[in-house]
Design a protein that fits this description.
- It is a single chain.
- By secondary structure, the chain is mainly alpha-helical.
- Helices cover 82% and strands 0% of the residues.
- The protein is flat and about 70 Å long.
- The protein starts with 5 loop residues before the first helix and ends with a helix.
- 13% of the residues are buried.
Amino acid sequence: MPRKPISVWITQVLIAFLGLVGVVSMTYYAVVMLPGILRLGATNSKIFALVILETIVKLAVVGFFVSTVVLISRRSPLGRWFGLLCLAAGLGFLAYGQFNPSPPTFSRHVPMFVADNDAQKFGMFVGELLSLVLYLLLMMRFGFSRASKAFFATHSQREKNEQPG
């Protein structure tokens, strides 16, 4: 039985982290927004229904991330494909956040990293580009490397590949 490749370990931890961030942000949102939602829901049932639907969809996404971590740990072939889907969703979330930053009036925070000159802007660009390349490399190694394919292969596929030809 092949050992778990490092790309599988990294992906499993990353997906679990994304799921944990989703749970924490949903909990924070529910606690902060609950009084306003209840006030609006008492007067307008459509808003209340939309909030319930949104919560169900968010819970389904978090549940998908959690089930993907479980499938990866059980060596299920579906875990490989669901893991790739979760990594692609994480890349989509990061791209959305990069291209649609929240306005300062809503976030109430000063941006963390502000470039003062062109050299710093170039350094930020190189860092973001390097991060993207490494993330895409992780996706490729997790989904399509020989070690990953062997790890996620079913028992009958492993026996077929190990038989002398």
